[in-house]
Amino acid sequence: MKFWKRLMCTARRKSPWLFHMNSGSCNGCDIEIIAALSPRYDAEQLGVLLQGSPRHADILVVTGPVTNKAVNAVKTVYDQVCGPKAVVAIGSCPATTNVYIDSRTLAGPLDKHLPVDVYVPGCPPRPDAIIAGVVKAATLLAERGSDSPTPAIVIAATTEEVQP
Amino acid sequence: MNPLLTALARLLIFPGLLFAVPAAWFFLWVERKAVALMQERVGPPFMQPFWDFMKLLGKSTPPRPGIAGFIMRAWPLIAVSSAAGAVGLLPVLPLSGGFEGDLILLLALLELPSICIIAAGFSSRSIFGEIGSAREAALSVSYNIVFLLAIVSIAASQHTFRLEALAAMHPTFLTVLGIIAILICLPAKLHINPFSLPNAEQEIYAGPMTEYAGPELAMWELAHGLEWVAATGLVATLIAPHIALAWGTSLLAGCLFVVLSVAVVLLLSVLAAATARLAIDSSVRFYWQCTLIFAVLAISSALFVRFWL
Ligand code: SF4
Questions:
Q1: CA-based, 20 to 30 A from B259: which of A134, A135, B22, B150?
Q2: Cβ separation A12–B205 shorter than 8 A
Q3: Who's near B151: CB < 8 A, 6+ residues apart?
Q4: DSSP-H helix ranges across B40-101
Q5: How many distinct helices (H) and strands (E) make up chain B?
Q6: A122 CA closest ligand 1 atom index
Q7: Residue B111 burial (CB < 10 Å; 0-12/13-18/19+)?
Q8: What end-to-end distance do the CA atoms of chain B give, in Å?
Q9: A12 pLDDT exceeds 80?
Q10: Neighbour count for residue B71 (Cβ, 10 Å)
Q11: Is A145 helix (H, G, I), strand (E, B) or coil?
């Protein structure tokens, strides 16, 4: 039993499958997510795969400030992801609604509606920060298994020194 | 040896489950790694398909009540068992048994997973699943004509439907023609580029698999891997064992089988990485117009060999 648990823990850490959900972002963050999977950053080395169906995913990656139009879709997709699952908020938009703050078309920020596990701030964040966030979420999944969500984590916006 | 024991050993040990499941994971890894290298990426680590499989086993599935849910859960299991049966039938080792007509059984078992995929897409009641299933059905009607004609022509030229006799035959111009026709059909059978449109990722979500999750999806992945082993193994046995028979030892025959299968996997993965997805009408036209000529040529020369020479 213990062996099985440890095996499952490693498997969850090593194979995070993503579903990418755009809740009204400006597309900046979405491009950075694609960049994280491109040959330059190559997140597949860590087992990361972008899945077409939310049923196949472990980690829901949300970009954008959650508009009124998108809020129900975000909740539905969250319910469609099978457990154990985690939510990663990419960019400053889902965290704080960013430059769109106080807009009457918004229902955000994201944590009003879903339990967010990892925040990756930045406008947009760098691809290496996104990869760090996804890996953090995968580690969280491995640790907690199917238990309830834990307090959220914030990832540093970049993992390397930014040149002025 | 007791024929029942031999059959069990073939199904469970070599080339059956004990060999085929790790081989399935290995082939899936080779495919992903080859695509990654072609795109100048590092690609997934060696154990990746295994970790994916284990993780999927540990996930929950949405509730599927009633008989419809039961049927939906059954399809991936049927697909896995038929693909495993197909691998078990391959005449890898010399003098490993077999019976008259096992070629027909092998072809039926190879075809079952794709029928399961069609049925699974429709029974999941998802619009994307239905589109994927309809595409798979159209594609399977077109490539199967060529696939079956190629194999039947090889069998007809040898007067037998016994796999072992086919594997031990001497290569002729006709067999080469047949093997090329089979190789052209394999990308469609395995749903890889340029014929990946039944499960076109992102375009129609995940096609027939859209509604599947957790252990069911793990079974589909395993069935896909086993299909790789069975399909490349069929090509490998058609090319190889007469060489191994000449050398005489089972160990060499096994090794040669594995090496040739990996070579076929590499060939197909490189093709997949180098091409883009074709639309359904171009794929169907490709098989009906271009490749059918191959198959007709093969079967007419087979009949010629059979009756006039
Ligand atoms: S965080 Fe910035 S880049 Fe990302 S969606 Fe919001 S405004 Fe666009």
A1: B150
A2: no
A3: B103, B107, B178, B182
A4: 48-57, 66-89
A5: 13, 0
A6: 1
A7: middle
A8: 38
A9: yes
A10: 14
A11: coil
Question: Across residues B145-154, what is the average pLDDT?
Answer: 84
This complex has an ipTM of 0.88
CATH of A2-156, one of 3.40.50.12280, 2.40.50.200, 3.30.930.10, 3.30.420.40: 3.40.50.12280
- Under the banding of pLDDT at 50, 70 and 90, the label for residue A29 is very high
- Select from B226, B223, B203 the least CA-distant residue to B215: B223
- A98 CA distance to ligand 1 middle (Å): 8
What mean pLDDT, rounded, does chain A reach? 86
- Predicted local confidence at residue A163, as pLDDT: 45
Token pair for A54: 């939310």
Q: Which residues of B touch A10 (CB under 8 A)?
A: 51
pLDDT for residue A161:
47
Q: Which of B42, B47, B61 sits opposite A45 (nearest CB)?
A: B42
SS3 content of chain A, % helix, strand, coil (to 5): 40, 15, 45
b/e per residue, B133-160, with b = 16+ CB within 10 A? bbbbbebbebbbbbbebbbbbbbbbbee
Instruction: Provide the token pair at A71.
Output: 């809020």
In whole angstroms, what is the distance from residue B117 CA to residue B142 CA? Answer: 16
Distance CA A4, CA B58 (A): 10
Q: Could you tell me whether strands A59-63 and A49-50 are parallel, antiparallel, or unpaired per DSSP bridges?
A: unpaired
Tell me how far apart the alpha carbons of residues A45 and B36 are, in angstroms, rounded to a whole number: 10
- Span A113-163, pLDDT tens digits: 989 999 999 989 999 999 999 999 999 888 876 555 556 677 665 545 444
Top-confidence residue, B109 or B8: B109
Tens of pLDDT, residues B43-74:
899 999 999 999 999 888 888 888 888 998 99
Q: Which residue has the higher pLDDT, B242 or A120?
A: A120
Please provide the distance, in angstroms rounded to a whole number, between the alpha carbons at the two ends of chain A. 53
Please answer yes or no on whether A53 and B39 come within 8 Å at the CB atom: no
Measured CA to CA in angstroms, residue A33 lies from A37, A77, A91, A160, B33 at distances of 7, 18, 10, 18, 21
Report the interhelical angle of B66-89 vs B3-12 (nearest 10°).
Answer: 110
In the prediction, which pLDDT does A148 show? 52
Two tokens, residue B296: 């007709």
Is A123 near ligand 1, meaning CB less than 6 Å away? yes
In the block, which residue shows the tokens 């048994």? Answer: B97
Q: Tell me whether residues B54 and A56 touch, CB distance under 8 A.
A: no
